[in-house]
Hints:
The protein is α+β, with helices and mostly antiparallel strands. It is built from 8 helices and 10 strands. Strand 5 and strand 6 form a beta hairpin. It is globular.
Amino acid sequence: xxxxxxxxxxxxxxxxxxxxxxxxxxxxxxxxxxxxxxxxxxxxxxxxxxxxxxxxxxxxxxxxxxxxxxxxxxxxxxxxxxxxxxxxxxxxxxxxxxxxxxxxxxxxxxxxxxxxxxxxxxxxxxxxxxxxxxxxxxxxxxxxxxxxxxxxxxxxxxxxxxxxxxxxxxxxxxxxxxxxxxxxxxxxxxxxxxxxxxxxxxxxxxxxxxxxxxxxxxxxxxxxxxxxxxxxxxxxxxxxxxxxxxxxxxxxxx
Length: 254
């Protein structure tokens, strides 16, 4: 995020107010995981104070992430910060996820962001994360290549409502006007940054669409059933909507 945020933040697409707070040692290749063991780390402490100052300026609650991850699945313990007292533990949660991941995530600091009240219909995952209307758009050289709902049904666990699948499918079906608007947003961002990227867009309860995240297209999760999915995506991650296979089979049997 420390790379793409300065490039796209002023391109005219709605984005949450954001303040980037660097971990100076990490920027110099000296990131330490000492705080996870309760050991002193002056650069970590300086970053924490900067994050608290940024959050006070934006106003709690805030959404927090590193340049590599928000660890959204653990929502209430990671990216969702309601007061200053939570700041250290939530940063450590994200730092721990960075240390544990096999995907080579970076941690060069944190982004303190305006909290968007998204149009969510239920919560899920172990951190009671709100599941909202979100879409991932893949843009190559400023042109939309394909798009997918952000949350594949296969990723949902611990949903708070029994009919979550039907609700999710309805949320994940944009009308033509919405799809045209999302395409324009994604292509505007794609033209600003160039090359191949995934662009994540979500809708607030007021109906406003925001760009909240992006990543290199080749490093992004892609529904394996898409013709543009990288080789091995379906085999490695499984079918994104296995319940649709059951439904389709039942229809065929009838």
